[in-house]
Design goal:
globular; single chain; Arc Repressor Mutant, subunit A; 64 residues; transferase; RNA_2'-PTrans_N; mainly alpha
């Protein structure tokens, strides 16, 4: 799993294009993780992404 690429995809979806990913952002700017995962899984490259991948991504050191 390319966690840097996943991080960039997730950031784009949440910050810039929630409408493109059909994400429902609540009044505080939050999205249900299940909804984010489901939306990403619609793309072939992310079809196997899981909540565990998000946890790994968050604790992984950034790469240059």
């Amino acid at each position: 799993m390319d966690y840097q690429r996943l991080s960039k995809e997730m950031s784009y979806a949440l910050r810039h294009a929630p409408h493109e990913y059909e994400l429902e952002v609540d009044e505080y700017g939050w999205v249900e993780i299940e909804q984010l995962i489901s939306s990403l899984q619609e793309q072939p490259v992310w079809r196997h992404v899981s909540e565990q991948d998000f946890h790994i991504m968050v604790v992984s050191p950034p790469t240059s």
